[in-house]
Amino acid sequence: MIERLEISGVNAEKWPNVEQYIERKIGRLDRLLPRHAKKSVHARVILSEGNAKRKLAVCEVIMELPHNTILAKEATANMFSSVDSVEDKLARQIRKYKTAHFQNSDRRLLRRMLGRVRRSK
What we know:
Elements: E1 4-9, H1 18-27, H2 35-38, E2 42-49, E3 57-65, E4 68-76, H3 79-102, H4 105-120
Parallel strand pairs: 1-2
Antiparallel strand pairs: 2-3, 3-4
Helix pairs in contact: 1-3
């Protein structure tokens, strides 16, 4: 579970049990994070109502990771479906973050090891 998860909202009391649902859905995204980022991740969830005519429920999540900040926002008729959509968006963005920052980590390790072997000769 993500340790630092802040939930705030405008008229958030309209949606019962939404805080527990958010903690469960957004909190388990830490499984996708790299090890070093799990302790330093900070997620802020902002709940609000969108357009008054269409009665939209807006869920916005700002996740601060080392070297990056991920933002996902969704507006649907139901707050629970907004949270689900935001979770999917965040999962895709975390996977993209991992491939961008850690794809070449094996190459770096191999270069370091080869450099040590060459220096020891």
